[in-house]
What we know:
Order of helices and strands: HEHEEEEEHEHEH
Oligomer: single chain
Radius of gyration: 32 Å
Structural class: alpha/beta
Largest sheet: 5 strands, mixed, barrel
Shape: elongated
Strand content: 15-25%
Number of helices: 5
Amino acid sequence: MFRFLLTRRWISLLMAVCVVGFACVELGLWQFRRYHERHDTNLVTRDNLTADPVPVADVLDTSTPPTSDEQWRTGWATGHYDATHQLVVLYRTRDGAPGVDVVVPLVTASGSAVLVDRGWVATSGSGDLTPAVPPPPSGTVTVTGWVRISADGGSDQVTPADGSVRAISSDAIKPTLPYDTYDGFLDLTHESPGVRPAPAHAQPPDLGAGPSFFYGIQWFFFAVLAFGFWCYFAWSEYAQQHGRGGVTARVSSLRRPAA
């Protein structure tokens, strides 16, 4: 009854469906892997966010960048801001509003500095402008913030130019400073003494699961759907052929003379 499935056309169609189905399954598995990676990362991040603050020197180093397991740890440091080497990070939006982040080196008693992202300042343009930024506190300051890994990017994004950058990379900023600097930086959450006005402090990370799990389900559904279409067309072909055969047989029996 289904001998037509052995024809070249139907075998070719089945092979195409298998290729599409295999690709969909692989994409679904990839999305599930991303979901589990995000889940594991969120577990580490939650632990780091709730851990007790530690001195910056315990989580940052001047020669070794922090690892992903150290990101979002809370570190603190005491020193003085070097406002002469302040930078603004362009194209930073918050709640849809354009703005910039303000990065200032904090020189500690050891002579090494840690880059501190003091927060976000709104701009009137598209975030590519340098606004009037509130100055940091003078004198000795104690800062607390989340440990962050330097951003990856091309030299046009991370190399300071005219007092601005597009992404924070301690590796690119170090050569412009007259002192040794820790790898990575701090997202400021508190400074003492504080000043007003001040940039808006950093926001906590998004700990949602993201869409990967549902994307994975969708890819598996597409794989099933592809095979389902093949089965549907095969059944339609069979029904069409069977229907024609039945009609032909009935017509022949009507035309056959009685014995």
